[in-house]
Predict the 3D structure of the following.
Amino acid sequence: MCRRFKSAPAQSAMTLANLGLRGYFCAHEYAEIRIPVYCASKGRKARMSEQAIVTMYVDCALAGLRRSDTMRVPDPRMPVEMRSVDRPQRDDWIPWNAIDSTVSKSDIEELELHFGGPLPKLYAALLEYKHFYELTESCLRFEQHLVGRWKDDLLSKYDWLREHVRCGSHLVPIGEESFMDAGPVCLDFGQRRSDGDCAIVFWDHEWVGTDKEINPMFSSSTKMFECLLFEAESLVDFLHLDSETDTQESVELKRKHLFDFLAIDPEGAGGNAREYWASRLG
């Protein structure tokens, strides 16, 4: 559910900026600003299928990239199918498009055999929905999901982690921690839930061999995608604090949104990972 506001005049837009609000929202019209209203106690799961949470997150993330015109990467090996012919190349930066995924059930089964266990349904749904270079980066950077290259990339990353990280045998990397560039974000098959889902953790290369080497992020992939969707839809950049531009009012607004974000996952982001997330705002 969203509250909708028509676009504001310049002075009102300045006020929004002072509150720390982003200049775009999802795939909606430029002429409107829509602020999502999330009821953490009820959640969205009752109103949509689990897979819809993934597709809505991906669609919203891609809309933000299109709006900011940042869908370009310096990759000379870019798959032809993903090259955009509608936007110009800028120096070495080649425009890309997200395309429908070519991932098959047999591909998923091959990964699961290599990883030694089933993938959570929502992460499999992500792989089966779109090919992309990036989505959002405020929480984590998913591994690039490129047609023709994605599977080898995931398998290589897993094999590297298993070989070089003492406790890495039960960790399946899906992206990178983006606040501190600490290391891979992983599915933790060692923390499997009764529904087949598992916890999301990150490996911190600066704490190898200590009890801080593996750190919690979310209690499950389901909660991860619910939180990522909340963050992608929010007009408030509540995971970053700018000491030069943030006012007391904007900081309070960010803290409120962060509290709502943590409430989505009380066992993970709002539980054993609360210190990590709360540190975003000092």
In short: The chain has nine helices and eleven strands. Residues 1-20, 27-43 have pLDDT under 50 and may be disordered. The first strand starts at residue 2 and ends at 6. Residues 50-67 form the longest helix (18 residues).
